[in-house]
User: What shape does this take?
Amino acid sequence: MREDSSVSRRRYVQLAGGVGVLALAGCTEDEDPDEIDTGNGADDADDTGDSDSEGDLEIVHWWTAGGEEQALNALLDGFEEAYPEHSVENNPAPGGAGAAIDAAIQTRVIDQDPPSTFQIWPGEAVRPYLEADALESIDDVWEDEDAYVDGVIDAAAPDGDLVVAPINIHRLNNLFYNVDVVEDAGIDPTDAENPEDLLDLLEAADDAGYVGLAQQTQEPWGILQFWEMVFLGQYGADTYEQFLAGDAESLESEIADSLELVERISEFHNEDAGTVAWDEANADVITGDAAFHHNGDWAAGEYQGADGFEYGENWEYIPFPGTEGIYTMVMDGFVYPANNPTPEATEAFVSYCTTADAQERFNPHKGSIPPRTDVETDGFPPFLQDQMADFEASDEQTVTISHGSGLEPARADQVQEAFAVFTDNWDVDETTQELIGIF
Ligand code: GAL
Assistant: This one.
């Protein structure tokens, strides 16, 4: 294996803050970013070229919920078919929206013992790792940059070099529902034109004896993403951008109003919201105990995997009220960490993720659409055909705090903390001031 000089270049290592903000000293200004070891270069004197000696490709991710696990397995099967010389050590760090992955990965990066590859959101979430000089460029192994939809390449290359291989695009601004339940409650969800209208739907479902909104409040990202959708639905993408750009103070009344609506809607949550994971809350829609569920379309991956629960017949969705024409994008990808334990296998895997074959296998199970435009999607389920049409027709694509693309991680963590407190005390004024104080 090549000697990795990035380790000796690091001057200090520091983990700061309760949630662990990675802050490693980067390389000096005259140093080039590391390139992936191709196995052929002049600096490869230590490279035996023998992939057997490398060990298995260790992959760390958080996809343990039903449809997500199936999607990952489909991807890994494809990889092992394409590269039979490599095998995989699947090492999940369970926790929705990466709730547990950062702590696990950051410690290992600091100990110079990273896994072969790990899951990350393209965009702002990557920055601390870049600043720490902890990722290598994957420019050389990327298949067909031109085949990607707009915006993806920028997110995959926050500093100009491609460092994440994006595998999917989720939509966050969905409102899913159980068709029988809403019919029984006499509700037409398409009546909801803005987030306030949602309250009427939930009241009607509650009156008919159902849980209005299946929700998890155990981890703060659940209500954070819900508030993001309410705010977006009430005030639009420009105002949301204004908030992300740090102008929270002049949005005080908007923030307070949106939080108040979120608080009022919390009356219609399932009673066990504070102790369940997102997929457990979502299961209430499948069983017919709950009418609605807001989530990214990874929730649809669960419906697709449920027996006898058919899109259009048993479940449906609308864009979150007030956000029609907007596609809030959530992407996932895999990286090539520096100090890599399996250079050849990692290079092969990251490269495979950028292929049409990988994206064709992964996305139907995951409930997401492929970031490449040349993937064969005829066999994708009807729901994803509709999402692809909505993506094409969307006027705006927005980012999100709760899934890593909207704010740099140190700030995003502070926002998450404010929402952790909010889901405990539901104090609108205090949370408004907390959010303003972050910027
Ligand atoms: C998101 C991730 C999705 C899905 C979701 C629920 O952050 O991008 O792929 O896993 O969390 O855990």
Observations:
- Residues 174-328+400-438 form a domain with the D-Maltodextrin-Binding Protein; domain 2 fold (CATH 3.40.190.10).
- Residues 1-21, 23-51 have pLDDT under 50 and may be disordered.
- Residues 62-63, 68, 96-98, 170, 296, 298, 330, 332, 403 surround beta-D-galactopyranose (CB under 6 Å).
